TrEMBL record, chains A, B:
<dbReference type="InterPro" id="IPR036460">
    <property type="entry name" value="Cu_amine_oxidase_C_sf"/>
</dbReference>
<feature type="active site" description="Schiff-base intermediate with substrate; via topaquinone">
    <location>
        <position position="450"/>
    </location>
</feature>
<feature type="domain" description="Copper amine oxidase N2-terminal">
    <location>
        <begin position="47"/>
        <end position="123"/>
    </location>
</feature>
<keyword id="KW-0479">Metal-binding</keyword>
<protein>
    <recommendedName>
        <fullName>Amine oxidase</fullName>
        <ecNumber>1.4.3.-</ecNumber>
    </recommendedName>
</protein>
<dbReference type="GO" id="GO:0009308">
    <property type="term" value="P:amine metabolic process"/>
</dbReference>
<dbReference type="InterPro" id="IPR015328">
    <property type="entry name" value="DUF1965"/>
</dbReference>
<keyword id="KW-0186">Copper</keyword>
<feature type="active site" description="Proton acceptor">
    <location>
        <position position="369"/>
    </location>
</feature>
<dbReference type="GO" id="GO:0005886">
    <property type="term" value="C:plasma membrane"/>
</dbReference>
<dbReference type="GO" id="GO:0048038">
    <property type="term" value="F:quinone binding"/>
</dbReference>
<keyword id="KW-0560">Oxidoreductase</keyword>
<dbReference type="InterPro" id="IPR015800">
    <property type="entry name" value="Cu_amine_oxidase_N2"/>
</dbReference>
<dbReference type="InterPro" id="IPR015798">
    <property type="entry name" value="Cu_amine_oxidase_C"/>
</dbReference>
<dbReference type="InterPro" id="IPR000269">
    <property type="entry name" value="Cu_amine_oxidase"/>
</dbReference>
<dbReference type="InterPro" id="IPR049948">
    <property type="entry name" value="Cu_Am_ox_TPQ-bd"/>
</dbReference>
<feature type="domain" description="DUF1965">
    <location>
        <begin position="217"/>
        <end position="284"/>
    </location>
</feature>
Length: 763, 763
């Protein structure tokens, strides 16, 4: 569907202009955002250029079958850091723009993905070239065999199986999955595919189809599963090689049929859709809930500056650039504090959701979600609910299968009063309190059943809080002999246990790139002092040390939090000889790593999941801890994070920290219908330590000193803060939800910028 | 100073009535708050009654010297739980009111404190009695020897020492401490006093007196310290028995003088007051900071109900009573959710700040702050800064040395939109989001240099978040050979390392008092399944178990957070056989226990500091983990928490959980001038687990479901929430700071309710 004007839709945040606002000119970033994704034109020209390469033998995506070669993805190949720094710091020209093209070669018996590098962009005859992209993949090649190239054929195959066992599904599940519009069941299988004795297999389960209340079938597992040998590309070679029901394995459907005829066979029945799974308001209205709750307003308008096009933001003493891509969503670049870069790059790299269970599907499921795409799943935010009514929004764009997708208003930026002060002290004669105003950048990525809220919050003390929260529907297991893997939370539903682990890259630069990682340990000691009269005292001490090499670079937090890690520059001690820098420490909740050791499902595909924190030397050849298709071949992934650890020095080198956020999730009834953000959350705080002479939040005028004597205020010092005094209408405060755009899609091959169309999320 | 009308001062919160507010009647608690502190009349009559007991030989506090017997404190003796439950649940009469009187017996060579029980109140001839209160103290007696009864004499003695070493302080510190108004130094000693070879000693340090900028001398240590034998009550028996400077111990001042004459003796110089220690706004105004930041408003007024007199609150499905006392400040009682009690008692019991250092004062300092009094230090809050402008305030009262102190507006209550949603899910056809509105109860206690912000936040999902944050001035050490104990953060200042550990009592009642503590462990396993073809898979499992007895009741969190603890009622499984209850899990930041093992300074005085979490059987004889004067005799404290652990069953008993919040604090330059709340904080979340059939937040109408198709909204379901549409004036939004009351003090003996007077905090 075509529609006018929406591509450039800019939201007018609610509440703007209710009082006098700042008279700030149109804001332009001081430098080009060299990290920003491909422009439409770049994407179109690169696509066109790729199609002109006869060796690729590409078919236009619109016409392609699974037996064609297609451009699966196209992203900016992020510039090498050295080139980027030359531009950012030394006025050198911007680094050349290259695209990273993910090409799926389907026209072969052994389909595969190969990454290609196209550039420089825009395409110019003679200089632009197209070469295999291998140097950033430590498998040696940006190459991955594809074992599920024929998804449509497989769905048809599974539907055929569903038809063949209709007698079973009717009897056990009171439902059918026969590739018919009247199906009451769907078939969905485990991810990743299983490599087993030289064949490729998948476990599938029948799931209930939501009829009205539950908007995700993940609450309706049936417990009937079958195993398919999906090896090869010829569906006639595929076969069902096993069945699972209620703890038992059957080699064939007939074996299951036979068992069903044996007296005493338990038919457990399906999970049934109902109001219990609906997210809608339900139950009695809470006392006084008919009154409107407190709401945050922004009387003087936004106090940050944003270049919407370049995705560049300045707020107080911070500035940063934002990029966005299909795999990992929003990323931050060149974060400066007080004019000096503190972070070159910060962003989520990959997220794992690893299940366990009695049944094969849950047991073998270990999603690496960047394959599905955190950027692809990051849609328009709901003003007034996802973000305050007055938030400012940015669009997000990415490329997939020869189309550029724009998700309007997918990122929001806003200031917030946290509701508690930043600083406070009372004496006999005065009290001093400072407001805690923060800047938040937020997006929400829906990956199937789960909604991940990603957030970067900037504080006046120079710290950055990195937070992820999870809501949405759990993926439940059918409750049958599964008490060891989760709570029994509804009729036949187990809150299937799983670990979320989200890996972030943090490239801090403290006074340049030559940095070291200081460890501070608080240790109990028994010590005799010159003054202790020979008595040994039980006390504690600091032990400071530096990590020497990557051999020490896999780190776990201490249960009592006695270790802290700070990136410093040893060549730049402060006037007192201390090494100033930024400390990395857990914020809210647990920062989980994966409980499973050497996961059979994951192999080597997510070796960043084994610890809380990692320190490595930064290299242009190691830009990311993960690769979206890593789990296609778990024992030989394209990027094996373990290979980053090759003993290199961490002493005054350019360091990269990878840290994990996450949670161990054992869903209980409180996760019905949805897991809630306030429960499933995790954060890391990146905070200055001995970095400045004192707390920089003293700069803000939004503090008060009240001097008093015997109840009378003798001085009220507000440091020049002026309270707005205008009158305004509450109806101007609320964000007006008048539209909701899923995806605005532009065909890139052929490039038809005016033929864009709008679809629903995932459409 | 006398002043009219202030005693009953009630704040009109800002922003009330800006739009139509609820038409709620005056609100009265359904039951009497039997936990509330003594009334004026009760306190006055108990005081009078105590004075009539000739065996106590009391002197009125106004006339008393350190050689008299005085009433140091008077509190409500909290009712025994069984009596309280009879009243709360079964309509029995309210339990009799008894006062707990802390009497200091100074009229003896060996002064001591004895706790007394006075009641029932009000005093009635013949029935009211006064007996030693011993049963709640596991030393066997509510008795404690006092070793610092003669504080004034000791100050004079120290001043005399200061005068005797004027030559030294002038030369080393360029200052004087001679008990003169012109002193530029003060002398302050370590806490607790040291028991050493049969004598009592204290280490004192000279500290700089703040002249203008720094409002706490704790930033101005000098590094010159002396050790005094303070044994006995005769000042002529007191003596200086050692000196410390720059890492060296000197037996006498003359030894130090001699050393000072040796060439090469280092005079390190004092820390000097200056703008570096001022909390005021300083430095360039931040970009756009002249604009007013976002602010939370409450357009329809408060949505909770509060009985101001009874300190009873109802909000959504929660209700609770608040009490307040001098030692520990605010406490919560009889917290109900959906009409059923979930918590009988919740409150902070004691807080430890344990320092370590090269110098004797820091090394021997281990504050147990309830002696100073968290209630005593909990003063009027600053509207618009400590709490949102629209917050509702409660007064707080306590008794000390025969006066009742009221701190107006010391507690605040408010709802807040957390700025992120509680629930969220997006599908191809709709998005559902729920606001996260919470109720917060807050107080701030200033104990010397530090300001502790205590907070209980109630969430729509039935969870309670218990948070403490710390701001104010650090207690610094003089920087001399102290690099192993903190960072060098200013000229001669070490950010002296210390551990904050705050112990909370949590008496959960899940469907009654017969409860058990379920442990859920996530464990890595290698398992072969019926369906796995003989292949052993690396995966994970849940292991559920129950703590059998107090022998297992000392618990640490796992570094990877794989253990969870839930209080359940095994006799009341839910329909699926799961045990519903409330889970206790760390929230924000680290929940520290003390690093020091068997602290020489603390002895057995704070044995609750050794682990993260404790589970014990509740007993009327063990109401609190601590006693304010425990550190007077560290090796034989009045309450030794270790004695709570006597192997009793934890299987379907009335359980009490004690948990610790806290932080390991290694102050750095970012703590100058003040530590900030967003950095020094810790929280615990008490959350329902399988307690209800589903998430109770579905009840709220402040959620939205947006159905859409191709960018158009097809349905906007707001569940009846009505947005206010009134017009209002911003000048009505802000809290007007027109007065600041420290303490309103009423003499209780003789009782002169109209002779109250107002003083500054600590006045």
């Amino acid at each position: 569907m075509k529609s006018g004007g929406l591509r450039l839709k800019k939201r007018q945040p609610a509440g703007s202009g209710i009082c006098a606002t700042g008279n700030r000119a149109l804001f332009t970033a001081p430098q080009k955002n060299i990290f920003l994704g491909l422009t439409d034109l770049e994407a179109a020209s690169a696509t066109s250029f790729l199609h002109s390469q006869s060796n690729l033998n590409l078919t236009a995506a619109t016409n392609a079958t699974s037996w064609d070669n297609i451009i699966l993805g196209l992203e900016l190949l992020q510039p090498n850091k050295s080139d980027a720094l030359s531009y950012l710091d030394s006025g050198a020209p911007a680094p050349g723009r290259y695209a990273r093209a993910t090409v799926q070669f389907g026209a072969t018996d052994e389909p595969y993905i190969q990454e290609w590098m196209v550039g420089p962009l825009p395409v110019t005859n003679g200089t632009t070239s197209c070469t295999p992209l291998n140097y950033i993949y430590n498998k040696g090649r940006g190459y991955q065999r594809v074992y599920n190239a024929d998804a449509e054929a497989l769905a048809a195959f599974n539907g055929k199986i569903g038809s063949e066992v209709l007698d079973i599904t009717l009897q056990l599940l009171n439902g059918s999955a026969t590739n018919s519009p009247n199906d009451t069941l769907v078939i969905a299988g485990n991810d990743p595919l299983i490599h087993e004795n030289g064949i490729i297999v998948q476990w599938n389960q029948f799931w209930g189809v939501s009829t009205s209340f539950i908007f995700d079938e993940t609450l309706l597992p049936t417990g009937l599963e079958f195993k398919v040998n999906v090896t090869g590309r010829n569906p006639s070679g595929w076969s069902v090689i096993g069945w699972y029901y209620n703890g038992n394995f059957y080699e064939t459907a007939d074996d299951l049929r036979k068992a069903m005829k044996v007296p005493g066979f338990s038919i457990l029945g399906p999970n049934v859709d109902g109001p219990w799974g609906s997210t809608d308001q339900a139950g009695e209205i809470l006392p006084n809930d008919q009154l409107y709750p407190p709401i945050s307003i922004q009387p003087n308008g936004p106090r940050f500056s944003v270049d919407i096009e370049e995705k560049y933001v300045e707020w107080m003493d911070f500035s940063f650039y934002i990029s966005f891509n299909k795999d990992t969503g929003m990323q931050l670049h060149n974060i400066k504090f007080k004019g000096e870069r503190i972070i070159y790059e910060l962003g989520m790299q990959e997220a794992l959701a690893h299940y366990a269970g009695m049944d094969p599907l849950q047991s073998t499921t270990a999603y690496l979600d960047s394959m599905y795409g955190f950027g692809a799943g990051s849609y328009e935010l709901v003003g007034g609910f996802d973000c305050p009514d007055y938030a400012t929004y940015l669009n997000a764009s990415f490329y997939t299968t020869e189309t550029t997708h724009t998700h309007p208003n997918a990122l929001c930026l806003f200031e917030l009063d946290t509701g508690y002060p930043l600083q406070r002290h009372l004496t006999e004669t005065y009290v001093s309190v400072t407001k805690n105003i923060i800047l938040v950048l937020r997006s929400v990525s829906t990956v199937g059943n789960y909604d991940y809220m990603f957030e970067y919050a900037f504080y006046l003390d120079g710290s950055i809080h990195v937070t992820v929260r999870a809501s949405g529907y759990i993926q439940g297991a059918y409750f049958a002999k599964s008490g060891d893997y989760g709570f029994h939370i509804h009729d036949k539903l187990s809150g299937s246990m799983h670990d979320h682990v989200l890996n972030y890259k943090l490239d801090l630069d403290i006074h340049g790139t030559a940095n070291s990682l200081m460890k501070t340990a608080i240790v109990p000691v028994t010590e005799t002092y010159p003054w202790s009269g020979g008595v040994a005292r039980n006390t504690m001490k600091l032990e400071k040390s530096f990590l020497e090499s990557e051999n020490e670079g896999k780190i776990n937090w201490d249960p009592n939090g006695v270790f802290t890690y700070t990136v410093v520059n040893k060549d730049r001690p402060n006037q007192f000889g201390e090494y100033g820098g930024y400390r990395i420490a857990p914020g809210i909740g647990n920062t989980a790593f994966l409980v499973i050791q050497n996961s059979t499902s994951l192999g080597q595909a997510a070796n960043w999941d084994s610890h809380h924190l990692f320190a490595v030397r930064r290299k242009d050849t190691e830009p990311r801890s993960a690769y979206p298709y890593n789990s296609y071949e778990p024992e030989a992934p394209v990027v094996d994070f373990n290979k980053f650890f090759d003993g290199e020095s961490l002493d005054q080198e350019d360091l990269v920290i990878y840290f994990n956020l996450g949670m161990h999730h054992i869903p209980d009834t409180a996760d019905l219908p949805n897991t809630i953000f306030s429960s499933a959350r995790s954060s890391m705080v990146i905070r200055p330590q001995n970095y400045l002479p004192r707390d920089p939040s003293r700069n803000t005028i939004h503090q008060v000193r009240v001097n008093f004597n015997n109840g009378a205020v003798t001085e009220l010092e507000n440091f020049g803060a002026v309270k707005p005094t205008c009158s305004f209408d509450m109806s101007d405060v609320f964000f007006n939800i008048s539209s909701f755009d899923g995806e605005v899609i532009i065909p890139e091959y052929p490039y038809e910028p005016n033929e864009y169309y709008i679809t629903n999320p995932g459409g």
